[in-house]
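Hey Z.,

So I finally got round to the MU-OXO-diiron thing we talked about over coffee. Here's the setup:
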Amino acid sequence: MAVIEIKKGITWVGALDWDRRLFDELIPLPDGTSYNAYLVRGSEKIALIDTVDPSKTGELLENLQEAGVTRIDYIVSQHAEQDHSGSIGDILEIFPQAVVVTNEKCKAMLMDLLLLPENKFLTVADGQTLELGGKTLEFIFAPWVHWPETMLTYMREDKILFSCDFLGAHLAQSRPMLSDENRTYQAAKRYFAEIMMPFRIQIRKHLEKLQGMQLELIAPSHGVVYPRPAFILDAYSEWASDRTRNLALIPFVSMHGSTREMVEYLTGALTRQGVDVIPCNLIHTDIGELAKELVDASTVVLASPTVLGGAHPAIAHAAFLVNALRPKLKFAAIIGSYGWGGRTVENLLASLSNLKVELLETVLAKGYPQKKDYQALDNLATVIAAKHRGIGVLS
Ligand code: FEO
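And the result:
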């Protein structure tokens, strides 16, 4: 990869993972990802801000060579997760005079995860600074952007925020500077949904902490560098807020067509009532898309056939994820079909315990839906529209 200077004395030396398609063996990556590492050259000291995933250590080392690096004084480790810390050991071997700059909690995690020796660390406190010579790094603790030890780094003279995972996106792009706001917005929203959404309250506090700071660039550890910080800060403010849209999401699976018929009927009924609807066939929809739509949906309707005495495993999986991601949903309902019985509703309700939602009427059809089932779906659509009107998202 080519190394790119994003501002005088600050060079992107990270790695792109164009064809990675899964993160944590869980999160789909339709656009690949990047592990952004930044080299900061002061007049006296040189710092490397984060490293890369261990699978990409070779690229980082080539980039450092291309950038003409013969000395590293500090490796700033903002987050212990291995996609950013995984090359620290290799860097220390090549640059043995370097010390790892991080906070106490991250240090302990790096020692556990990477087996780094304690004498290689310099620990810093929240708000502490590190002088490189004409470039001052200020460390801002930001626990629970999804791990407890994360910190951000603000470079005062250049007004750059190195934001680690926070404000990032799983996106591989050849040049690190943002070039397509729409594509980046979608990738960043999906990333927020999958990683940050369960921590919305903490995210809001971190956003408050950044208010009033002079920012000219935001340089996260995944995705692209933002030359217009308000672009991503405003998006995060909206996503982390309690505001929802006039949107009902219907994750569904259908085995023999009954549940699909109910989903299609409900979609039509909701549409006629003025509610936006996204039916997500879980056999084809990846969970990242589902998560992204959950960021601002007001209602979720889980739609499942009955199999093995309960909810279809794909719906059970979706319910588990919805519950774990803790979206700001206001209303939920369960619809579906069965042949002779089952515990679909009990299964799904037990999986939704984290959600602070109002549960709406369940509609279950025995076999193929009949007149009374269609009437129940019409009623459900009317109730959802009224609820959306009640919270002010449908006028
Ligand atoms: Fe990109 Fe939490 O690591």
